[in-house]
Amino acid sequence: MATFHLFPRLPAELRLRVWELTVEPRTVKVGFKSRYEGELWQTTALYSKTPIPAPLQTCRESRNAGLYQRCFTELCVLNSNRKNAQKKYRRDGYVWEGQYSYVWCNLDIDMIYIDGWLFEDFESIAHLIKRLKFWRNMDEFWRRPAGPGPGCDALRWFKNVSEIHVVLDESDDFASWHGTSYEDPWPCDNVLFIDEKEGEEMRMMDLEYKYDREAESSTSLKQSLTFERASTISIALSEPIHTYLELFTHSNMATFHPFPRLPAELRAQIWQMTVEPRIVEVRLRVRGKWGEKTFNKLTSPTPVPAPLQTCRESRNAGLYQRCFSDMPWRGGAAEDAEPRYVWLNLDIDMVSIGWSQFEAFRPVAHLIKRLRFTRDNTDEYWARGDEPDELCHYKNVSEIHVVLCEGSEFEEWQWAAQDYTWPCGKENVLFIDYEQGQEMKLTDLENKYDHF
């Protein structure tokens, strides 16, 4: 049957389901009509050469089914005269005017195709796009903010995109985009390059692997995992993960190029294995000011962990967290100043506060599990003051390191087990003398210098 005449007699729920089945992914090309008037380019309207979806031209029921939405009306702002709706703004010396218009899209499945030179015109709606396609040539302006248009930095605006197709210019080839995975801020890893002239396609990771000048030419399994071999490695295998890591740990490769081809579960475990305990120096000193305590800015000389500087996948693996950003660190700073933070893995990292006062870290004391500080037990402020009582706020600490100040000796701390309350227990307290290069647990120190 060319026509199903009984369709209107079907139950409404079934008809709605049928209409939903008519929706298919499309490539919707979106742009602006413009003309040159005087010394300015005048944008007259938002337009799309892609035909309106068939369900919207069928009947009222299909139009009301919510299969498609009117999108990108934000690109043309209405003024007080609705009959002559105009978009008008000034950027880089250009005045743009346009009519109020829209494009029919299903943003969940439709691929939005735009001109890569016009990224800035789509900045206000970039967060709505989930599948992006654009044409762009790889030239000096792509990575130069001073050039015409925002260049590759505009990719950051498309933060919700899950798939990107890049159509190559006629003057470019796949090799022209070599290095793009680590030089350009791609919002997702699912990037496909399309050479319409040659009728070829290539994934970004495949492109990098093919044109990487440092790729090993050896076919040995220990030197270069092929795509077929890498794709067969699974976490479900009986062999432990270190068995597979040995394949390239003992090889001569400085870089394991097929790493992106490994299964996601295996890559996640590898990232987890890069996490090692660190001693993170954190400072937040307190100074008195007419009876008021003012906190200086939070600082840390410890470098940001390497996995956070590697790639998007390692940053999203949850290996480290932004910590201490809610502390009252402001000291004469503007109220809207950006809060500071420190990258930490609180389960294994040791937070070293040096001479900073315990009270300064009271708001986050319950988060710290491994604590290090420097104190002088002959100092009256420490030994006879109230500061040792602040240790009770570090109730979740499982390990404490006490660094002796210059000129101090272990003997000065022989009564530390009786004089102070250690929330982690005295058996988990370690004293460190950097001058002598020695360490001693509190229990051993107590036994050694016990005069009774």
From TrEMBL:
Residues 4-112, 256-351 form the 2EXR domain. This is 2EXR domain-containing protein.
